[in-house]
Amino acid sequence: MVERVAAAAREAPWVEVDSLSQVTEDICRPIGGRPTVLWWVGFLLALSVLGVGTAAIGYQIATGATAKPSPRSNKRARRRG
Predict the structure, then answer these.
(1) Which residues in 3-40 are b (16+ Cβ under 10 Å) and which e?
(2) What is the pLDDT of residues 68-78, one digit of tens each?
(3) Low-confidence ranges of the chain (pLDDT < 70)
(4) What is the DSSP secondary structure assignment for residue 72, as one 8-state letter?
(5) Given this model, what pLDDT does residue 13 score?
(6) How far apart, in whole angstroms, are the C-alpha atoms of residue 4 and residue 12?
(7) In angstroms, what CA-CA distances link 72 with 31, 32, 63, 75, 80?
(8) Is the whole model's pTM more than 0.85, yes or no?
(9) What value, to the nearest 5°, has the Cα angle with vertex 9 and ends 7 and 14?
(10) Are 45 and 39 in contact (CB under 8 A)?
């Protein structure tokens, strides 16, 4: 077993190619196909998160909600005067 690993390590780690266009085609071939079901699931999940975020921002704008609470809503601020 060790001999096989050592022999594999001695072999050249690259593959002979005819041209750079062959390398480009080999790399781009998977991209040229149709998206898989897993890609669509991830895309729809991301789209739904975008929709929830957009709705939340729209709600804050429509209701005037802010990140900083109003002094009127703070009980301590009312007691002070």
Answers:
(1) eeeeeeeeeeeeeeeeeeeeeeeeeeeeeeeeeeeeee
(2) 666 666 555 55
(3) 1-2, 5-13, 15, 66-81
(4) G
(5) 63
(6) 14
(7) 57, 59, 17, 7, 11
(8) no
(9) 115
(10) no
